[in-house]
Queue: 3 jobs
Job 1
Amino acid sequence: MKCLSILSLSLLLLCSTASVYAQKVYDITTFGLKANSKKNASPVLQKALAKIKAECKEAENVILRFPEGRYDFYEKGAAVREYYISNHDQSNPKKVGIALEDMQNLTLDGQGSEFVFHGRMLPLSLLRSANCTLKNFSIDFENPHITQVKILENTPQDGITFEPASWVNYRISKDSVFGTYGEGWTLRQSGGIAFEGDTKHLVYRTSDIGFSTKGAREVAPRHIHTPAWKDARLIPGTVVAMRGWGRPAPGIFLSHDVNTTIENVKVHYAEGMGLLAQLCDNITLEKFGVCLKGDNDPRYFTTQADATHFSGCKGKIISCNGLYEGMMDDAINVHGTYLKVVKRIDDRTLVGRYMHDQSWGFEWGRADDEVQFVKSKTMELVGNQNKITSIRPYDKEEIDGAREFIITFSEAIDPAINEQSGFGIENLTWTPEVLFAGNVIRNNRARGSLFSTPRPTVVENNLFDHTSGTAILLCGDCNGWFETGACRNVIIRKNRFINALTNMFQFTNAVISIYPEIPDLKDQQKYFHGGPEGGIVIEDNEFETFDAPILYAKSVDGLIFRNNVIKTNTEYKPFHPNQNRFWLERVTNVTIAE
């Protein structure tokens, strides 16, 4: 596979380079931490990392090894950091189990170990580092914040009786509401996702379910009756993952790194995304997973949000041979962030603002970065590409925690760009090439994958199995999420799609949905996605579907759909409001040949 050849070449070059320099190996046991000891690993890691940084020279290759086994990390003694993380809650400070910062040529090798976290923590961060590798370990939490329950009885008159999973700590409040708790946290859930008990597929046509546990009472040990929760779709045996909407922290956080490799690492749970990378250059994921612990895992869920998410990165993102299941959002999302123009100071200077409440506080651009401007209502480019000559925070002294930036450009800005009409600024320098290949995506909420980058993107040889919503989304939005941008060169080939669209979520118009958010499509004159002939190519794929919609496309110049096989089954009853096999809105230079 193309992915393997690229990875093999990367490893060969890495080994050739490594042989030039000395190598230091540290074993975590020398710091007094043994596997399966239940000792708090958090302060030990702080001590070990401080020693490594003090002793190692920049050119040295360093290996930190963990003998195989379980290691427990607690909030007490953990590193305390102020991190602003894209697409997460900007709550600070954060307690970090393994804080890798300003590292060079470091390999953290878990040798098959389980890293288990307690309370509310960010398990692992890697910041401002180069040529680092994370491999051979898993991340999990002793007591996940998502609450899993099994439906025992369901009657229209009396409501629902459910049983919390064995690891769930719960209590019924004085006002008769079911709630859960753990080390340093409490939650009252009022929504969730329903899974089929035998297959772990999302229950057909349930999407995000809402409920009330008012009036809850225990009718038998760990059997909770809730008269106010009534939903005929949840038959006995259904498993519900009760959840909130908070995203305190991902499982792994990467920021301002160069040449990062993550190999054979599994995230079994995180209260945010499995992996969030921002402002990184070159990332390779090989056999990375956001997944259950095998077929016999009693859990049905993994992460609270996306499995992997790349915000404002550049270079190459290579993600191959992974397993992504049970998460509450996409397996992969690649995008930048539009700044909204909130002030025009002069013909070369603007103030831009981060708009979404979960995406602000981190660096947006640098001098010499290439940018372009988009009109929010029609998502059309305005004026010419430009270059940043200077950028600094406008509402704070420092970048960390800033929402606004004052930006000066090398050329005069188009006179049409102003703060009243709605314009966004897109950073073109911080956009990556993407290879997403050989992955399995299954039994998750929302969508399978999302790509928004103008650079070459290849999505091939993946299995999208019951993704519940759209399997592949090409988006772009300067109105709500403010996630850039247009796709210019996309190849989607040799993938297999099995029964997507069993539920409805945002942007789920077809199995493959090319769906930029354009409030005023009727007045749009240009096109958002595509550009060159055949800018988006969908070929040699196999679709197995119970319903009609295969491809939806909006505002595309250059679309080819060819040599694909579509097979219809009767596993579910068709229900989608879009009953067109192909639905095209403002699409030109299009070829469809089955």
Note: The chain has two helices and 50 strands.
Job 2
Amino acid sequence: MRHLPTRTTRRRAVGALTAGLLGALGLTGPVPAANAEAPAGVSARTSAAPAAPALDDGLALTPPMGFNNWNSTHCRAEFNEEMVKGIADIFVDKGLKDAGYEYVNLDDCWALPARDANGKLVPDPARFPGGIKAVADYVHSKGLKLGIYTSAGTKTCNDAGFPGGLGHEYSDAQQFADWGVDYLKYDNCNNQGVDAKLRYRTMRDALKAASQTTGRPIVYSICEWGDNKPWEWAADVGHLWRTTGDISDNWGSMLSIMKQNLPLTQYAGPGRWNDPDMLEVGNGGMTDTEYRTHFSMWSIMAAPLLIGSDLRSASKETFDILGNKEVIAVDQDPLGKQGAVLSSEGGRRVVAKEMKDGSRAVALFNETGSPQRIATSAKAVGLPEANAYTLRDLWQHKSYNTAGAISATVPAHGTVLVRVSADGRWAKNPPAVEIGLEGGTLTEAGKPAALTTSVTDLGRTPAKRVAVSLTGPQGWKVKAKSPTTAGSLPTGRTLRTKWTVTAPAGTPPGPYDLTLKANHRSSSGVRAESVLPLTTSVVVAPPSGTSHLGDLPWLSTTNGWGPVERNTSNGENAAGDGTPLTVNGVVYATGLGVHADSTVEFYTGEACETVTAQVGIDDEEGTDGSVAFEIWADGTKAASTGVLTNAEAAQALSADVSGAQVVRLVVTDGGDGITSDHGDWADAQLTC
């Protein structure tokens, strides 16, 4: 079973092994120090530069691409030989092989719970009647490669207790090579306290020995969840290493993992990759916009692209995202650079990646729940000075010219991914335009809401015959209050249009789609269209007096594990599985149970004065967890705590939110990852 970020009992050993047991397992010799500290003044995730990789074997020179079955089948009976062969067929039939996907990887539950009399692993005959070699042969016949799974412990992570590799490294590695396995994922469960470096280096040596006897090279994926900072020591051990706990199919989990992986830029390169876990694209827990962000950010981080969704029932949109060759080219660029964060403020990030041809891939990432303008420049991303540049939108598959500005209004939870080059061929492309929104996207039913849209020419050449339109749901009234056209927009000039948007009286609260479009032409007549999907929320004015936030409707939520819970703790991944809110033994009847990183937004309509709460870590996580709480009034942080731990009693937190349209309750991790970070907004109240 995959590691859950809210549970650590299976992850961490209970005490170290005795020397006798180490010897019995065949693990002798000096044991490197675990959890070695970074040099003074160097942060936990950005310490000294790594040594050059010693695994000079020509493997994984670009991040591995493929499939892992765990998210789609777990340990269910459908995980079997027929299913694995079917995935190989889909790779070929749906164009995934042509797009670069190569590995078909088995996760836990492929073996019987016990080894044979000779200590060998035994494939489950019910799941794999032909054995693993037969599956490998079939996958190889398709021009693909097979991966397999075990754990650097006495047993794997699944509760059934399948045999792990600890003490059996050389025997298991030889079996894998004999079967024709091309990739090993080596997990971290039931490790008995044996030093991580020793365990993972032992398997490295075993795989090398097996390769020498069989001629079968095996890509080595270290899955120790980032506990011992493998980016600092594993460049000569494995080809990739997990930097975080397991991902879940929700925005909060994906976002938290991305934030942990982004600072590790300096450690990635050909044959040594930071691995923020497999892709969740297509599993249903996020929107298509969020999945495109997920895929974009994994690609610009040069992360392994391992599909985690059930390709047997995947939608066309899922295949379109996974098969975007222009985005994949960013991930697979042979220079092997991981994108670096150039700016990060208020949930708006610019990440840029140097490419081998001298161009730059640039991600404009919007973490927030509303459209945001995000901007940088060709100079800022490292391009040489030029009169103009070619800007290629990797999701629209269209090219434009820009005078140097790289900017966009990015939808909520969206990412604009472009590739920019000083290639001298920019003039053949129409000018890039930025379409944007000024003002909020909240409206009360039956009342007109004012919006202002903008169209700005970013190109070196003028945008001709510019026209803008705004449309809403059927029955809504959308009226322009100022001009919607311009004959010509020179570089840097903007067409602003004022609108009123009115939802019909009685429209239920919730999100609704608006579409902003702008058409323009280049000087030579080439037509271009830009589209910005927007979401407006129909809201209800907050009630007068003091209300419990656990009982009020929210605008939006994100959560690091499972959903935000009303009047109970966060619990586990399912909705409604929390328990009474309890901080340091004190039980609270009302509030919100969350898991870092978390944001809960409430509409206050400039009519409220204060937010109060008793905040702390819920007792359901024992002694684990560390978080910080923040209250935001629109774009201003109105109140915050320091880092709180489970050992502390609830802390009173109060904020003046007068004049705010929206109040945000934010919980961040304490700087050590999100494991067990269950935060309680106990007795949370809003006064209006």
Note: Residues 1-21, 28-52 have pLDDT under 50 and may be disordered.
Job 3
Amino acid sequence: MKSRTNMRLCATGAALGIIATLGALPAQADPLSSAIPHNPSSHATLPLPLGPGDLPETRTTTTLQPGVTLTRIVRGNADDPALHWTVEVSIPGGDTSPDPDAPPTALKDRASADELATDLWQKGFEARVEQVRTSRTADYTGGTLGWRVRIGTYDAQSAATAERARLTAAGYRGSAVYTGWDGEATDRGPWRVDVLTIDPRRFRGSLDASYGPDLEARETTSRLSAAADATAAVNAGFFVLDPKAGAPGDPTGVGVYDGRLLSEPVAGRPSLVLNDNARGTRVARFTWRGRVTGATASLRLNGVNRVPGLIRNCGGTKGDIPTSLPLHDVTCTNPNDLVAFTPDYAGGRTPGGEGLEAVLDAHDRVVELRSPRGGTLPPGGSSLQATGRRVADLTAVAHVGDRLRVKTTLLDARGHEYRPSPRTDIVNAGPELVRDGRIHITPAADGMVHPDDPSWYYGWAHKRNPRTLAGVDTAGRTVLVTADGRGTRSLGLSIAESAAVARSLGLRDAVNLDGGGSTTMVTDDTVINTPSDATGERPVGDALLILPREHGH
């Protein structure tokens, strides 16, 4: 049974039938302002801190099942005369990633930007140079990121696309962009945000994370939702997209499903911890340790259920190249790797390549040593794959007929063991957005600041994009949020705006999940937002599901 409530928030702050008055925000809302009172029910009372305070805002709330509501928030004006289309020039060779969410290389130092603009003017393009400054965060000083070069001002995307084609013909690269994606506080929108709220006091279903039938394969959020007969779902953690970076669909960070660690953490990056009953949702940072123990020796593991030698988002172990620290959307490498595999990976078929693989049966006994590595696992079995110098390590421990004990352990931020229950799921995330009710954005610690590539931060964090956010409010309710973007009907959110929105919705702790083309929300087997990929809904690594029944019933 669904019930629906509609309200409209306007400049005077009236909310018809629901709220008597609602104070307006300052004329130019600062997304990092601390002036917004922290209120656990504020997603029903406060306007979003986006754009000027006089913008119209409408909200529609629907009860999906006991303890679960969906609120659609639409804020701003459909036609902002200050916004237009333009062509942003890319640095040659900078836009080569196969990841559709990878930002092009668009920023230069001032002298280089001026030189490029002068060259473009000489070839008949009306180029201009614009300084890009970004906000300070909890662990990043912000300031000037660089200078961008843009060409023209157009009312229609088609005109910008035509100018881009002319630019390409002249030997340059660029993209047609809408200035509403730049993240200016004076922009008048529009924005479209969907909010799922799960109240554990009334919720009698199950809150789960699912990767589908195969950890390695990708599935759309709507397919994962339909397969579980879920009431609602959103996309979840980051995952491998490019086969050159690992196995597509594999989580690129911690992945715990029904209490089992199936993907190792990225060096202390944040994650979202969920329990089936929707109680105790929290944002937490984990590291891990893993060991394989035989009759005469014990070895340190480097990974779980990933292609040996490839560490997406980095944050692995000493010896990884270029770093053992987190570095988002970068694939670190290490020729000397020891990785454990469970039957959840690729339907029980492990990746092939040079090295050695010890195959274990369901009783942890070595039944086969194979080189090259790769192949099927016995029913209920597992394996260990070694490359480079780790081959000698594994050879010394693994003998056919021997029993090997593989143990993986999560460690919390204090270094203490954390043992998830079979009713606990953990998905990878980052950066943090809100901590203890205060905006706390951590892009540097979480690998979103690329020291030698300011264009990456500009495109991924500074500019507006589709976003998926999650967290918990002071009443203990789990809140899942999607914001559409990369369009003119919804501008999206910068990371700073994401934090401000999360806090205005009353979240005590919040974190950013995978966004961009992955951002998807599903209710009743229908995608209710507008995914930004040109091909439609993107297959993802995992999703968060709200089920109408308790897990396993």
Note: Confidence is low (pLDDT under 50) at residues 1-5, 7-44.
